Amino acid sequence: MVDGIGIFPGQDKELAISDIYEQYEKAAEYLNAVPKHIKIIISPGNHDAVRQAEPQPRFPERITKMFRNDFIFVGNPAMVDIGVKVLIYHGRSMDDIIASIPGFSYNEPAKPMNEMFKTSASFTDIWRESIDSPEKKDHFVIDEIPDILHCGHVHTVGVSRYRDVLTINSGTWQSQTEFQKRMTLCLYRQKLLLLTCLEWNTK
Q1: Pairing mode, strands 85-88 and 78-81
Q2: Which residue, among 3, 185, 29, has the nearest Cα to 106 in the 3D structure?
Q3: CB-based contact 85:146 (threshold 8 Å)
Q4: Is 98 helix (H, G, I), strand (E, B) or coil?
Q5: Could you tell me how far CA 121 lies from the centroid of its own chain?
Q6: 76 close to 46: Cβ distance less than 8 angstroms
Q7: Cα 147 to Cα 151: distance, rounded to the nearest angstrom
Q8: CA-based angle 45:142:50, to the nearest 5?
């Protein structure tokens, strides 16, 4: 929903609004202006003011009360029925998937999204390194196949189909931050190193 505060080193230099609740007020100002016949469903991500461990709860009342009362707030992940079943997941585990599989990149988010179904869970322990919260129930197993998997997180647009599921990454209107540029370069170097090691070991 918002940029958040202290999400990455040096973020404060890029923020126009340095108070997180003022960021939500500005977001609410824009979204409350959307015509009421358009239904809005809001789920948190890794920049939001909820716990970072997944699954993430819906926004607290301090935030939801800034928005119109016809908005629907859900946790992350969440399955919603809008005539078709949509599995909403912010997509943070895509970082681990992209870093682990040669040929995957942030420019093609459909590939890691499709990979979620191949492992039978959208964010299984295979991919979640340190972001899951201990729960009695594993909220990450895909036990009900959705019609649509909708993600964000990687800030790039991607649409694909895995078997009968439409996978959509909606991207963002925000330009890439300097931190994201550095991370992309870092990931590229890691993959080059991994491929070099694999080639060396096969000789």
Answers
A1: antiparallel
A2: 185
A3: yes
A4: helix
A5: 15
A6: no
A7: 13
A8: 20
Assigned token pair, 132: 């899951």
**Cα–Cα nearest to 6, from 58, 55, 48:** 48
Contact 54, 130 (CB under 8 A): no
In terms of DSSP H, where are the helices of the chain? 20-31, 61-64, 94-100, 110-118, 178-201
User: Going residue by residue through the chain (203 aa), what tens digit of pLDDT does each one get?
Assistant: 887 877 667 777 777 888 899 999 999 999 999 999 999 999 999 889 999 888 899 999 999 999 999 999 999 999 999 999 999 999 888 888 888 888 888 889 999 998 888 765 544 444 455 455 556 666 567 778 899 999 988 888 899 999 999 999 987 766 666 666 666 555 545 544 554 555 555 55
Q: Look up tokens 């939500």; give the residue.
A: 24
The one-letter amino acid code at 110 reads A
**How many residues make up the chain in this entry?**
203
Q: Identify the CA nearest to 115 among candidates 99, 131, 139.
A: 99
Residues 6+ apart with CB under 8 A from 86: 79, 80, 146, 147, 148, 149, 150
Output the CA–CA distances (angstroms, integers) from residue 46 to 11, 73, 85, 103, in the order listed. 14, 16, 24, 25
